[in-house]
Amino acid sequence: MMTWFTSDQQITSWGGPGFRFPLSIHSFKEDLKLSELDSFALTDQSNRLLGFGQCYERLSRCHLGRLVINPAHRGRGLIAQLMTQLITFGREKFDTNEVSLFVLNDNHSALSAYQNFGFSIEQYPEVLPLENCSYMLKTY
Predict the structure, then answer these.
(1) Distance CA 87, CA 69 (A)
(2) Which of 51, 75, 131, 133 is the right S-S partner for 69, CB 3.0 to 4.6 Å?
(3) DSSP output for 53-93
(4) Is 33 left (phi over 0), alpha (psi -120 to 50) or beta?
């Protein structure tokens, strides 16, 4: 998955301002907070990584983060499969009917995918953690 990101801008846009670049296996694992956050891998029948995402509780909602699809497999609807897994798990774990995420305003393909999945842009009740981003919410 590390090879999917080739610049500081790409890794910061995906992982947030705390991600270090250039990437090393150690820093990547540490910055992902794998031991702290529920993480999911979407794989094919040969166990090749197609996508990755995390979820955690934020503002009493299941919050999705660090969603990414392998660049070689984008545009095939895989994000919906990944999000379905994360949402099913997160709604049960956090006992909530609300799911949220952040998306960068210039990430038009992600914004479109999330809207097609039923998310809408809403006002975030706190200061947004990043500039140029929107808060999206879906209620079940």
Answers:
(1) 16
(2) 51
(3) EEEEEETTEEEEEEEEE-GGGTTSSHHHHHHHHHHHHHHHH
(4) left
φ, ψ at 136 (rounded to 5°)? -120, 150
Alpha-carbon distance of 34 to 28, in angstroms, equals 10
68-103 tens-digit pLDDT = 999 999 999 999 999 999 999 999 999 999 999 999
pLDDT digits (tens, 9 = 90+) for 25-34: 999 999 999 9
pTM: 0.95
114 burial (CB, 10 Å; 0-12 / 13-18 / 19+) is: buried
CB-based contacts of 106: which residues, under 8 Å, 6+ apart? 132
Domain assignments of the chain as residue spans, ordered by start? 37-139
- 3-state SS class at 41: strand
Q: Tell me the pLDDT band of 130, cut-offs 50, 70 and 90.
A: confident
CATH number of 37-139: 3.40.630.30
Specify whether the CB–CB gap between 67 and 100 falls below 8 A.
no
88, 90, 91, 93: CA torsion to nearest 10: 120
